Amino acid sequence: MAEDAKKQQQLPPGMVIGPDGKPCKACTVFKDFAKTKGTVPGSGSKQAATAATMMGALATRPTECPPDSEKLGRSTWTFLHTAAAYYPVNPTPQHRRSMLSLLQSLPILYPCNYCAEHLGGEMQKNPPDVSGRAQLSKWLCDVHNEVNDRLGKDKFDCSRVIERWKDGPADGSCD
Ligand SMILES: Cc1cc2nc3c(=O)[nH]c(=O)nc-3n(C[C@H](O)[C@H](O)[C@H](O)COP(=O)(O)OP(=O)(O)OC[C@H]3O[C@@H](n4cnc5c(N)ncnc54)[C@H](O)[C@@H]3O)c2cc1C
User: Is Ribosomal protein included in the keywords of this UniProt record (predicted)?
Assistant: First the structure.
């Protein structure tokens, strides 16, 4: 435990240690971490340090870097909401079992460990509803909204999930 605290102290602020004791990119928001990268201690004026900090924050990463927690989150939500939107209206027992197994694996396998822990807690309070497309899409929307709420983001209007993840808007702009 003291060893963990020591390792965390040696890391740039914002970088999270994973369960393997190593820096976990998938648990870290890169832009928070990048804010610290532009500052060079003792490199001149406070303004120069602030400008360097901002440049660090704005620095774009190469496209093939490992995902941070935001990129991983966006990609995972895209897959999950899309899978829910294409889930059968009347699922077979096999569909139900497979979806339940996928969802129940997330608190164990999701690479951002504290995200996975929160999700496990939420799923205990509110178990997945795999009884049909509308029910599953609504359940997932509620789960995502719990995360949005915790992160201080706006809640999504769950009546729009099928439009957002399957049909696209009625104005045809996504066709
Ligand atoms: C299972 C899981 C748990 C997570 N837990 C955490 C956590 O504990 N801490 C943390 O910092 N990050 C967590 N994340 C990541 C976080 O949810 C976001 O993915 C990340 O912050 C990027 O956010 P974003 O604003 O780009 O949009 P995202 O939240 O990734 O959303 C992507 C798109 O989905 C749509 N959308 C938004 N809300 C809903 C909804 N309720 N229903 C349907 N569609 C919606 C919007 O069009 C949005 O642009 C988690 C991700 C996942 C998949």
Answer: no
CA of 48 from ligand 1 middle (Å) equals 35
The answer to whether residues 87 and 156 belong to one domain is yes
CB 122 within 8 A of CB 103: no
Nearest CA to ligand 1 atom 30: 74
The total of structural domains in the chain comes to 2
Whether ligand 1 lies within 6 angstroms of the CB of 128 is answered as: no
- C-alpha 153: how far from chain center: 13
Q: Is 130 in the pocket of ligand 1 (CB under 6 A)?
A: no
70 lines ligand 1 (CB under 6 A): yes
Beta carbon of 160 within 6 Å of any ligand 1 atom: no
Task: Answer whether residue 7 shows pLDDT above 60.
Answer: no
CB 23 within 8 A of CB 16: yes
At 129 the pLDDT is: 98
In the structure, what pLDDT confidence band is assigned to residue 3 with cuts at 50, 70 and 90?
low
Residue 24, Cβ density class (10 Å: 0-12 exposed, 13-18 middle, ≥19 buried): buried
Q: Tell me, what CATH number does 97's domain have?
A: 1.20.120.310
> CA 17, CA 25: separation in Å to the nearest integer?
9
